[in-house]
């Protein structure tokens, strides 16, 4: 027991029974133990004034419930306590997290879904699985947490039931808001994609909720689950225990199996309209004590593209950007510079330069905007937006949504001055230019060329106006004289005295000869035979100028083989009917003359001097039609 002497002093109390009256007090023993543990070889000698050891002993006795023998006031001030939560030393929370909706009343733009849930809760017709889908930042996960609150809220008095207006004061509401409720399990499907993760859920749903009314599983980005994981979840999702609710959130609902969709009550969360977003951001700025221009908030709302989270992130950045100049006000020009947007007034100047045909001014404006950091693609996008607003003002009759009177006057002026066809053509040209700039190696050059092309095409008439003009010219053109009236016949046309009744019979004989496998003889008959007389077994013919060879024997042989009769073929010096080739050329010339004599064609040729009428000799398409569209 000698080792105990180093711990408790000179000798342990039980070894010296005679000195019980002089034994040290509990405070002194504790002080001696503390001193020995911290390396001091001996306890401090007693003094009239309280020593540090006695003060330490008094503190230890107080901690363990023993009243100290003497409790003098300490001479040294106690150490300062840690700063309470909520002080400026706490890390900054971004606006997207700070202003996350905590009640359904704070959830903007989803009135239809809130009304459906409210009616379901009132009528006790709650589904066992809910699916929230929509673009990013519209409140899918927040809605799932709100539903968890609504189902598990017990009210401030602890006697409440499911409600669409959770109190936010009871323990379930507070725990769910802080993400620490044991019966509300959130799982990120993007990082838990396998069947093993789903198997854990399947095993856990068999047990009742620990402290809440319902055990709720919130699975975010549920479309990331694997096919096997979905299949493993199907049976539990279809027939879960009465105390379990599933809440799914996804941005790509088309990737979910139909078997999962059919087992859920689906809510499609809408994009938040730009005016509603601007109003929401104005309220946030008011709570934050930040001044913001209306136009600046409109820019932030437009850049958010219907997403509250994206808009709050941009607004957070805009507030930080505004603080740099010392004013602390979110101004439109600062937001425009931060987002790289084109100035509205410069957009109007660009459109005016395009419509007025001022190329030099147009290039100067583009160069100035590019020097300020505005991307060429943003210039084209701004012009497209402006053109769309002009078209809408033209249809509605006014531009009431314009933020300023100057912009309203400009939009309404263009809406009255421009035709609908011009606006639509301008939109198509801007859209084509946007695609070119997007894929060009030098976006600035591509934007300049696209805008110059649009400027040169701005004053061209649209197709509807062109057709109307041609119809007016056609109505004023003199009527074409009938073919053959008061003029010579077309070259190569058959004379009036020609026996036209012979042509069908002769053409049929030529076809018979060709079908019997004598294409050479058939071509000779088409090109060199002007029929003078054609009777059964008799053919008298003459030849066109330039053909002098005797073809009687060839014709006799071919006709005899085709008909099986003996033919008398004789070449005579007389006027005969045109050859089949001459007849086809005459018909073609007559058709061309008829087309040129049409009033609409004459008007077109008059409107476009030097234009030529091009004949399409390509073969017809397979299966019918007048054009071979496969070429």
Strand order of the largest sheet: 2-3-4-1-5
Distance between the termini: 112 Å
Please give the largest β-sheet: 5 strands, parallel
**Coarse shape:** elongated
* Structural classification: alpha/beta
Mean pLDDT: 78
Q: How helix-rich are the residues, as a percent range?
A: 40-55%
- Radius of gyration, in angstroms, nearest whole number: 48 Å
Number of helices: 26
Count of strand segments? 10
Strand content: 5-15%
Please give a structural write-up.
The structure is a single chain. The protein is of the alpha/beta class and 631 residues long. It has 26 helices and 10 strands. The chain has helices spanning 3-8, 26-37, 52-63, 95-98, 111-122, 140-152, 171-178, 195-204, 227-238, 258-261, 274-288, 294-304, 308-322, 332-339, 344-356, 359-371, 376-396, 405-417, 420-439, 443-457, 463-476, 502-515, 519-528, 552-563, 580-596, 599-607, and strands at 129-133, 184-188, 215-220, 244-250, 265-268, 291-292, 329-330, 530-535, 538-542, 568-571. The chain has a 5-stranded parallel beta sheet, covered by helices on one side. Strands 8-9-10 form a 3-stranded mixed beta sheet. Mean pLDDT is 78; it is low at 1-11, 13-21, 41-48, 64-87, 479-499 and 621-631.
